Amino acid sequence: MDPARTYDLLVVGGGNAALCAAITARRSGLAVLLVESAPIHFRGGNSRHTRNMRTMHAGPLDVLTGEYSEEEYWQDLLKVTGGLTDERLARMAIRETERHLPWMKQHGVRFQAPLGGTLHLARTNAFFLGGGKALVNAYYAAADALGIEVSYDTEVVEIALRDARFTSATVRRKGALHEIRARALVVASGGFESNLAWLREAWGPPADNFIVRGTPYNMGTVLKLLLAKGARQVSDPMQGHCVAIDARSPRFDGGIVTRVDALSLGIVVNRNAQRFYDEGEDFWPKRYAIWGRLVAAEPDQIAFSIIDHKSMGKFMPPVFPPVKAGSIGELATLLALDPAALEATVARFNAALRPGTFDHTILDDCATEGLTPPKTHWARAIDAPPYYAYPLRPGITFTYLGVAIDDKARMLMRDGKTAQNIFAAGEIMAGNVLGKGYLAGIGMAIGTTFGRIAGAEAARHVRG
Amino acid sequence: MSAVKPRLEELVEEAQRVLAICNACRYCEGYCAVFPALERRLSFDEHDVHYLANLCHNCGACLYACQYAPPHEFQLNFPRVLAQVRKETYKKYAWPRAFAAAFERNGVAVSLATGASLALALLFTALTVDPSRLFSAWSDAHGSFYAVIPHEAMVTSFGLLSLFVVVALVMSLTGFWAAPGEDTAGLAQPQPLAAATWDAAGLRYLDGGGDGCTYPDARPSFARRNFHHLTSYGFMLCFAATSVATIYHYVFAWKAPYPFYSLPVILGTLGGIGLLAGPLGLLWLRVRRDPELADASQTGMDVGFIALLFFVSLTGLALLILRETRAMGTLLAVHLGFVLALFVTLPYGKFVHALYRFAALARFHIERRRPLPEIGTE
Known about the structure:
A: alpha/beta, FAD/NAD(P)-binding domain, Flavocytochrome C3, Chain A, domain 1, 2 domains, eight-stranded mixed sheet, B: elongated
C-alpha cells in the first residue's frame, strides 16, 4: 500500500466479489490495490463460509446434473423474494453464472460433487471443493500471481467524493491513517451484519438476541459512508438472510455448523411452550430461510425444536448435542419451559394427527387436522422417548440494505446521477436482486457476476 | 495442546469434538477418504477415531480450507489431532505391548537401537574375523562379503529377526483390525483389498483432492507424494533385490557377490538411489513445512525412520562400489549394523504407518460397499 502513488483501482473488501473485481481489472492491465479490513486468517468476508454457487446451465456439467434454465432460476428467485427484485439485474446475475465456471477454474477454484445430505442441490448448485475458504485462498493466490497489491487489517474510514466521483479514500492500518488515491473505486465490503449497534438500531431490543453466523468484520462502514454521501439506498435495514440456528452458537462466525436441521421432523415451540408456525410447510431451502425471522418475532427471540427418538439421526448431524430427557415434562424443565404447557402442546399436537405414510423425501400426507397452526407434512406423533430439543435463535448471515447500481455495476445516487467511477459488488448491492428471502447459493452468483462486471467496467473507465 | 503431553482419552475427546464439527460442516468431503468415512457416522467411539486418524494421509488441504482453523475460536486443527491420535494407535497396537514405550520418544529409541546395532555388528566382526582378513581387499572371485562374514551367520541372525518382525507386524495389524469388532476374514476380501492396494500404491489421497498436497505450505504441490514414492518404491526394490538374491543363492546356487549388471544389483542400485533421494526430499520438505500441520512430538519418529533408510542405502551403495577394496570388511559391518537397526525398529517406528494406513484403506473400501445411513435431506 503506497499512499504516494495513484492507483488505477482501489477495491474495498476482501471476499469473493472484491477478488473477482480485482482479478478482472488486473487482467485488463490496471494497477490494483485491494484493502481488506480483516486480518489474513479471517480474510474473505462471508465468502469464507459459503460452499456453492447457484448456477444456470443448459445441460449436465461435470459437477451439475440435468439442466437449470434461466427461466426456472428466475422463477425460483421470484418466489423467495415475493417480487422484491430488479428483474434486469437479477437476470444478468443468473445468465452470467454458467460463464463463471471456466473463469473460476482458470483462477484456481475447484469444484466437487454435492456434499452428503445435499443431493437436492445437485442440479442447481455447483459446490466448491473445500468450501468458500478454499475458493478465497485460490483467488488470493491468483491475485498474488497477477501482481495485485493486497493490504490486510486495513479499514476504510472515509471516502472523498466530488460531484459523484471518487477521488480518494482514507484507510486505517495499525492505528495510522493513510490517504489512498485511485482513478476508480470498487466497493465490495459487505453488509452491516457484524455491526450489533446498527442491528439494534434497525430491529430494536430483539437484535440483542441475534447471532451473527458470519464474519465479525462486516461493520457496514463503507455502506454508511456512501449512503450519507448521497448513494441511493436499496432494500431496508431489517431485510437480510436470516435462518434459525442453534442458540448455543458463538456470537460471531459460527458458520454452517450452527444450523439445526431437525425442525421439520418435530415441532417448534416458543418460550411459552406454544407452537407458532407450520413446521412442515415446505422443503429446505424455503423453510431454512424463513425460520430466522419467525424466531425473531417470538418473545425473547428463542424457540425450541423438539423431536422424539424416531427422528434422531435422520437429519444432518448438528454440532451441539441435543438436550435429552425421558419425558416431555422433564424436557420442559431442562429447557426452563412450563412442563404442563409443553405437555399440553405435545398432547394437542399428537391428538390432531391424521393417519398418513411418512416420507421425508417428498411432501407427504402426514398432517394435522383442526390444529392451529397446522403441520401440513411430516407430522408424526411425538411419543417415543427419549425426547430431544435444540434451542434456536435468529442467525443473521447477511443484510440486504445496500446501494443501488445500474447494469454496469455503477453506483446510483439519490439525485439521479450515476457515479462514473464507483462500482459496487457483492453484499453491498445484493439488495438490488434480493429484496427479501434467500435462495441457496445466490449470494455467490451475485458476488461473482457483479464483481466481474465491476472489474471490467472499472478497467473500461480507467483506460477510456 | 501440543505443550501438554496428550493422553489417549484426552485426544479421543478432542477428536470427537472436532469430528462433530466436521460432520456438521462437510465442506472437505471431496478432499480424501476421511470425510466420506466420517459422514457414515453420527457419533465416534475410540475405534472410529483410530480408524479415521490412520485413514488420514496428512495432506493438509483441509486445514487450509477450514473456516474453523485457528485462530477461529473453534480451534479446529483436523490434521494435527489425527496425527496425535496416530501415535497413540501405534502405541496401543504395538506387539508385544512392552515395546509400546518405544513410540513415546521414538527418535531416542531409534537412535539407541541404531547405536546398539552398529556396535553389535562391529563388535561381532571384530571378535570373529581375523584382522588380516577383515582389512584385506577381496575380489569378487574370492567371494567378497562371505570371506569376511560367513553366509550362515548372516542368514541365521537376519532370518530369525525377520521372523520376529513379521510376527510383530501381523499381531499389530490384526489387533488394530479386530479391535472395533471387524471380522479378521474381512481383510481377505479381494475387491476391497485390491482397491486399498491401488490407493496405497499410488498414494491416491496424498494429493489434496487433485492439485497436490498443501505441503510444505499453502501452495499445492506433488513434491511430497513424489519423494514418498521414491522412498517406498526404493524400499521395495531393495527388498526385491534381496529376494532375488535369495532365490539365486538357494535355487540356482549362484553365490554373491553378483556382477553389476545382474538383477539383484540393478534392483538394489535403483532402490538404493530411491532411498537416497526420497528420504532427502522428505526431510527437506519436512524442515519447511507449516508447523500447524505437525505434531511436534513426532519429529524424532519421522526423522529417525527417514534417516535410517538413508543410511542403509548410503552404506549399501558404498559397499557396492568399494566391495573389492580393503574398506569392504568395515563397510559391510557398518551396513549390516544399519540394516539390523532398521529391522529391529521396523515394528516400533514410523514404518508401521504403512500397516495401519493400508488397513484403514481396506476398511474404507469395505464400508463403502455397505449402505449409507439414512439422514434425510437437509
